[in-house]
Design goal:
Anticodon-bd_dom_sf (chains A, B); nine-stranded mixed β-sheet; ATP-binding (chains A, B); aa-tRNA-synt_IIb (chains A, B); BirA Bifunctional Protein, domain 2; about 575 residues; alpha+beta; Rossmann fold; nucleotide-binding (chains A, B); 3 domains; homodimer; Pro-tRNA-ligase_IIa (chains A, B)
């Protein structure tokens, strides 16, 4: 049914996507609502503040945003870019409802797993609904009804729509918001092999898509978390504003996210004789967790790899900020009232000397209990973990810059902050099984479909790219999503006809360049400053040299270009710049 | 700032809206997901069932729908059509958040007014939110922040997005759903005159838009209800499936919706000597309402004009289905326990004879209380209304076919069911005042902006047009929104190259016709039936005559066309048909 790079044209013919000829011959900034420049620039302004100041969007409620015309135009370009690459893997576009039912999510056991991040509501008949944060349940139910034979597979369906997640701390504007736009693609195959083939095709399309955005990105091996499944990759934009960590090797191609990354274990002869302790509490508040790690300069609590600790202590609550106090108080109370058995779980990093390990196991180490605790060590049950289930010594510390790569001989690992822009998952039968999405394979043989899901954060790309490319003068955009590619700013004394002539010259006969004319009733310097703030990739100024010699000044901040260009040479010159953006 | 028919081009250049050349040269049905024909045709199938059966959409939850590729393609065409007409009145496109806050809606007193139709929810911090059913509050707040001077007006902003209304009885699919797509335009002006000018410009654009859809529509004077304001028109598609009533004159141009419509009062000499009673209860359950109307053949309870009754009895609850039983039981209980004063309100239609009016006023009419009531009339307070506040006699009956028009001498009124597709409101300062959306008019003089709002039901148009144009063979669509304009179906033995040649011939050099090739692995008769079900406006069949003489069969069900057409004549012939659709 599908051929890769297939030719079903889901996009509408031109007649439906452009306005009639008399309307489209000239795009002017005066004709749309651009409330820019209303805010003073702050000292350390992030991309989000710049987006607000330049008139792209506005916050309506905490973590919830209105898109203004400039932002919406950019968003639409990004959507069209995504459409193109989804079409290249033969995907069909749908639009699923935002309202979903809690009963449906109970069938996949995700109602509880998602917890307070789910926006829940009841309708007037008290039926429990939710605002979908993702659509595996809905699409699997839909496909289960409509697809019954392996002959209808492979099937690839995607949408670009609003998603809802009640973030505890929404921040940085559209980078982490509560109502946001996502592209989600779901693949359905008859066998694991076919599903993995789909997975690779989508990965290739993602690479082409991010290549076209011309932003640096890394593809990291990832864990699949609540979504389920067992093959997963994340697409990250390295950024100091990021909330994720990506680990990459400087020698081989190894890249992984923090949860999954591994480094070569430290050699035996570095065993540390002094210990520090990081303390945590179990989710059910019944035991204290001590993580023992070397007391050497440069190491601190923030180096503890809580993901690794959780693999040996599954009940650990790593999100409690004041865990010691809580446990001390709580357990003291508990022991008085209900005779609950107190327990201490020690996790000992592989770097610790055998002497220390022994004193921990034996209950004699002085740091076993928090300072100020009045508990009697001998009354507490002590458990000590020094190796994983597979018998590997514990590595309790996060990977740090300079750790050795396990995938090659000489590589050193680099750790950097990043923003996740996309994610691919092979889901297997995680959803098709509980939701009964089966196809007939042979006579009397039914099998659950093999699924994949593949997301791209549309709103988030806007926020991340804003952060990544902005400089002190304002925003900057890749050509692929800039609201306009070129702005023409006529100075004082320049005739309208001249501005229109430049406009037509730049747009070209094939209408390949997206040009806009700044015809607003503002001063020349104001418009130049505004063009920098908004981040038009290329600015064409018609100043005094235009009046005397028909020469424009072409500016491109990203390429550090400021050049006089004659009228006839404009198209070639501009196209050359655009090809680099 | 705006010129009517202005030229700011918000639509993206072709490069962003079409796929690369190698992808778009051929649109084939095999390349997208079209789960059609899965349901057997029912006897009395409505448009919604046809939409489901043809693969346009599917219900996900009661009153909530997923759009499938075919439906989404149509929806996108409709959106582009709306974009074009919004651009023609200089409107800028935005995209407002679906999440809104209850606190904001309290400021305009609409939180309570909307009642149970509002989907309400609390976030994890217990902040009360809602899913916006319309966006006056949000847009007014946004504009209040960003527009401060009359110099920035007029301002016209619109969006096309999802809206939420928790309908008591969602029905007929997307005709009355709980999550639906709407276009909403908001206008902001500095004076009433300017606002009325905006109102007229939008009305003209609406007429052009509905004209282009080529469906019959009526524009009715309307009441503005909860939205507020004092000038309002509704755009209706007459339809037996409609839930609204439109009254129009067969002689003059008078059209109004039922709430607002007036007919010439009946002449005096028709006064009826026999009475029937319609009974209702007050919202607070404290009084019974008797509406007295003539006991003549052809009149029934459904002829009672509850809108008219409410203007003289504001507390009437017209939605209670078994009002008599409720009041009888309720009041009986109440009178025992709390000594509440029982009250009876009589509304007497102008057609009743004076004798009857007197017996009602005097408490002697035998029908004053419901059959089976054990109450003593003499213990009940009786109030009788025979004229409106302005002194006009009461007309308790709905307008009926053949009533006399008040706007012309000879006209007779026609009453027909209709579906509301659009609505225009002049809002005045209904929202700008409470939300502080003021502009500076002169030095030290601020004034609230004069607003208008103008909706179009995007999902509803799809449902209404489906109902309106469907016949026993399947759906039918106007050219403007059909998923494709022409489908080419090659029969057995026809070479791929021939089908492609026909395709290219039809699309034309300017790509003016939206053609799709049915290249699916199904039989010729199956494809023809499917084409009728889906409702492609024009079907081009390549059968035996094609093989022998390069002659196609062109079918158009709406125009009752079935014609042999030679290859060379196809473009002219097809364009001629399309111009009528």
């Amino acid at each position: 049914m599908f051929t890769s790079g297939g030719s079903f044209d889901q996009s509408l013919p031109d007649r439906f996507t452009t306005t009639s000829l008399q309307d489209q011959h000239l795009a002017c900034l005066s004709k749309t609502w651009l409330p820019t420049g209303g805010l003073a620039q702050a000292d350390k302004e992030d991309g989000h503040s710049k987006l607000v100041r330049a008139g792209y969007l506005r916050q309506s409620h905490p973590g919830v945003f209105h898109m203004l015309p400039l932002g919406l135009r950019m968003q639409e370009k990004l959507e069209k870019l995504i459409d193109k690459h989804m079409l290249s893997v033969g995907a069909s576009k749908v639009s699923l409802s935002s309202l979903s039912s809690q009963a449906l999510w109970e069938r996949t056991k995700r109602l509880e797993a998602y917890g307070p991040e789910l926006f829940r509501l009841n309708d007037r008949k008290d039926a429990p609904l939710l605002l979908a944060p993702t659509h595996e349940e809905e699409i699997t139910t839909l496909v289960a009804k409509l697809v019954t034979s392996y002959k209808n597979l492979p099937l690839r369906l995607y949408q670009i729509g609003r998603k809802y997640r009640d973030e505890l701390r929404p921040r940085q504007g559209v980078l982490r918001s509560r109502e946001f736009l996502m592209k989600d693609l779901y693949t359905f195959d008859a066998s694991v092999d076919a599903a993995l083939q789909s997975y690779e095709e989508v990965r290739a399309a993602y690479s082409r898509l991010f290549d076209e955005l011309k932003i640096p990105y890394v593809v990291a091996e990832a864990s699949s978390g609540d979504i389920g499944g067992d093959l997963s990759h994340e697409y990250h934009l390295p950024s100091s504003m990021g909330e994720d960590m990506v680990i990459s090797c400087n020698s081989c191609s190894y890249v992984a996210n923090e949860e999954l990354a591994v480094a070569k274990p430290p050699s035996q002869d570095q065993s540390a004789a002094k210990a520090r302790v990081w303390r945590g509490v179990s989710k059910d508040r019944t035991f204290l967790v001590n993580v023992w790690y070397p007391n050497v300069p440069g190491l601190s609590e923030s180096d503890i790899n809580t993901h690794a600790i959780k693999t040996v202590v599954p009940g650990l609550d790593s999100s409690m900020e004041d865990s010691i106090a809580f446990w001390t108080q709580d357990s003291t109370k508990e022991s008085g009232s209900s005779q609950k058995v107190l327990k201490l779980v020690n996790v000992v990093d592989r770097r610790m000397s055998p002497t220390i390990s022994e004193s921990i196991k034996g209950g004699s180490h002085p740091q076993l209990l928090p300072v100020g605790s009045n508990l009697d060590v001998s009354s507490i049950k002590i458990e000590t973990i020094t190796s994983s289930e597979g018998g590997q010594p514990i590595n309790a510390l996060r990977i740090r810059d300079g750790d050795n790569c396990t995938h090659c001989e000489s590589g050193k690992l680099k750790v950097e902050k990043a923003v996740e822009l996309g994610h691919t998952f092979h889901l297997g039968t995680r959803y098709s099984k509980p939701l009964g999405a089966n196809v007939q394979m042979r006579e009397n043989v039914m099998a659950p479909m093999q699924m994949g899901c593949h997301g791209i954060g549309v709103s988030r790309i806007i926020g991340a790219v804003a952060n990544h490319l902005a400089d002190e003068k304002g925003l900057n955009w890749p050509r692929a999503i800039a609201p306009f590619e070129v702005v023409v700013i006529p100075g004082r004394g320049v005739q309208d006809e001249d501005a229109h002539e430049i406009y037509d010259q730049l747009v070209g006969e094939k209408q390949e360049v997206d040009v806009v004319l700044d015809d607003r009733a503002e001063s020349f310097p104001w418009k130049m400053k505004d063009a920098d703030t908004v981040g038009h990739p290329i600015i064409v100024l018609l100043g005094r040299k235009w009046l005397s010699d028909r020469i424009c000044e072409v500016q491109c901040r990203r390429l550090k270009v400021k050049e006089d260009v004659a009228f006839d040479e404009l198209p070639v010159y501009i196209n050359n710049l655009l090809s680099q953006l």
